[in-house]
Design brief:
Blueprint: E1 3-8, H1 12-21, E2 26-30, E3 33-37, H2 41-46, H3 48-64, H4 66-80, H5 86-94, E4 104-106, H6 110-116
Parallel strand pairs: 1-3, 1-4
Antiparallel strand pairs: 2-3
Helix pairs in contact: 3-4, 3-5
């Protein structure tokens, strides 16, 4: 059985992350939700590398739990920087796993979608 994940477009958190990273578009994970900024879920789901990268973060959240993962991620980022953060290294490696997305299914959150319109 596949784990489900959600997508939130026009996310406040992803917008903050995009500004911090000086990025045009942003996807970031909080729990089981991929937060998007300046992109739509269709584009994100078509981009397999991007999708797999974020699914790896969903797996990390599940493995460590919210508080522990966020703490460890922050510590890694402070010590090694964003790019060499072990969670980012693992997520970049996951981009090459052609079976990763088979373990997850996207569950549209219609109530959330209605709030966005």
């Amino acid at each position: 059985m596949a784990d489900t994940f959600y997508i939130k477009e026009d996310s406040f958190w992803a917008k903050l992350a995009a500004k911090r990273m000086k990025a045009d578009k942003m996807a970031m994970v909080l729990g089981r939700t991929v937060h998007l900024y300046n992109t739509h879920h269709q584009e994100f789901l078509r981009n397999k590398r991007w999708l797999r990268h974020e699914l790896a973060h969903i797996r990390q959240f599940r493995q460590y739990g919210w508080i522990r993962f966020l703490f460890l991620y922050l510590v890694e980022s402070v010590r090694k920087g964003y790019y060499m953060n072990r969670f980012e290294v693992e997520a970049r490696e996951a981009e090459q796993d052609p079976f990763l997305e088979d373990r997850y299914s996207f569950l549209p959150n219609f109530a959330q979608s209605e709030k966005l319109t």
